[in-house]
Amino acid sequence: MLHGKKVVVVMPAYNAAETLEATYAEIPPGYVDGVLVVDDASTDATAARARALGLETIVHPRNRGYGGNQKTCYARALEMGADVVVMLHPDYQYTPKLVVAMASLVAIGQYDVVLGSRILCGGALKGGMPLYKYISNRILTFAQNLVTGAKLSEYHTGYRAFSRRVLTELPLEMNSDNFVFDNQMLAQTLYFGFSIGEISCPAKYFPEASSIRLGASTRYGLGVLWTTGQLWLQRRNLARFAIFRADGRGHLTHVSRDHA
User: Fold this and answer.
1) Rg, C-alpha atoms of the chain
2) Cα(205)–Cα(134) distance, integer angstroms
3) pLDDT at 208
4) What is the pLDDT of residues 192-232, one digit of tens each?
C-alpha cells in the first residue's frame, strides 16, 4: 500500500510472453498489492507465463482490442478494491521502476491521473522511437493542447496511473475498443474536470516491444483529431457525444470469472 491506498498494477497484454517476466521483475516490491494480466487472445504463451509468475490472469477468448482489454483491466482492478490503478504495458518499453512514483502522486491526492511522459526527459528518440512517430506525437500534442487548453507534454503515452474515482466516474464503456481509447480517456478526464500530472519516463524500443504499424498509426492519428474535435464541440454545446455522457459514467462491465 501507499499512504493507506491499495495499489493494483494492470497489464493489458498481447503476445508479451518474451517480455512479461522482465517487466514484472522490475516492479518495486513491497508497495503493490496486486498485479493483473489481461491476455487479449494472444497466440503465444503470455497467459502461461503470467500464471507461472503467480499473477492473476484473465484471458479473452477472442481479441477485444487494446481499449477492450483496458476495460477488463479496470473493471477487475476495481473489483479487487484498488484505490490506485497503474497501467503498465508488459512489453518492457516503459520502466516499471516508476510505478511507485506515479502511484504515490495519485495516492496522496496530488493528481487524479498521472502520465509517464517520454517527452519530458527527451528520451523518446534516444530510446529508439521511430522519427515519424516522434514527429506525429509532437504535432498531435501541439494541436490537442491548442484545442483543449491543457499543457501536457504528450497525450500518447501508454504508462498511466488513475485514482479509483476516475475509473468509477468516467464513462469508459462508451469508448472505443481500439487504440483511440487512450485518447478518449484523456479527453474525458479533461471534460469532467479531473487533474492530470506528468513525470519524466524513459522508454526503449526494440523488436520484442509492441508497436503500432503505420496503417494503425494513421487511423489512430485521425481518431485523436476527431476525439479532440468532439471535446471542443461538446464544451461549446454545439454537439453531444456519447463519450461525454454524464449518465454513462461508472458502468464498467463486471468481469466474468469464467476466463480467469
Assistant:
1) 17
2) 12
3) 57
4) 999 999 999 988 876 655 556 667 778 899 999 999 999 99
Strands 56-59 and 84-87, how do they pair? unpaired
HEC assignment per residue over 136-164: HHHHHHHHHHHHHCCCCCCCCCCCEEEEH
- Which residues are bridge partners to 67 per DSSP? none
Residue from 32, 34, 35 nearest 20 by CA: 35
Parse the chain into domains and list their residue ranges. 7-248
- CATH 3.90.550.10: does it fit domain 7-248? yes
pTM exceeding 0.85? yes
**Which grid cell sits at 182?**
487512450
The C-alpha cell that represents 46 in the structure block: 503470455
Report the alpha-carbon distance of residue 127 to residue 97 in Å, rounded.
16
What are the C-alpha distances in Å from 1 to residues 19, 29, 92, 98, 159?
A: 26, 11, 23, 15, 20
Contacts 24+ apart (CB under 8 A), 130-139: 130/205, 132/214, 133/217, 136/217, 136/221
Letter for the amino acid at 23?
A: T
Q: Which residues contact 4 (CB under 8 A, 6 or more apart)?
A: 107
